[in-house]
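Can anyone check this?
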Amino acid sequence: MKQLCGIDEAGRGPVAGPLVMAGVILKDSIDELNDSKKLTEKKREKLYDLIIENSIYHIVSFEAETIDNLGISACLISGLKEIMQTIPDAEYIFDGNTTFGISGLRCQVKADVDVPEVSAASILAKVTRDRYMVELSKKYPQYGFEKHKGYGTKAHIDAIAKNGLSPVHRKSFKIKSLEQPTLF
């Protein structure tokens, strides 16, 4: 019987920073796993270390420039394929509603809540991405990445309006409140 490899991502929707994906096969069960968004930052950090110690895992990251050049779907497909190649001979389940046509992969809505391996992948992806955004905040303090992690909050949009886009912003993601009206 093949082991189950759960796959999830963090950072599909932000206007800055990377898309991070993780695949996880748990070697031992871990209590209190859940969708990373339903856990406190402190709990995610604690679980992150437990997952690393008790799993076979692979983490993939796509920078903003790659997302702009390839598109978010192509990055997701590439990440799924890389995880499946790096963690071979498993049964793969991806959180969401599409397999992007990848054979040998099944998807399940809310798998990050219902499937421990996907919950673990969700936590690895989110903690990895959040830590990276905190590091980026040191290089680009004017944007407040440590607070909003690159999502389009009012404070972040205001910072973009004041400072322009940084090299870690996704230029292909349109921010409606910053678009200039077209005059005819």
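Reply from J.R.: I decoded it. The helical segments are 41-53, 64-70, 72-86, 111-114, 116-139, 145-148, 154-163.
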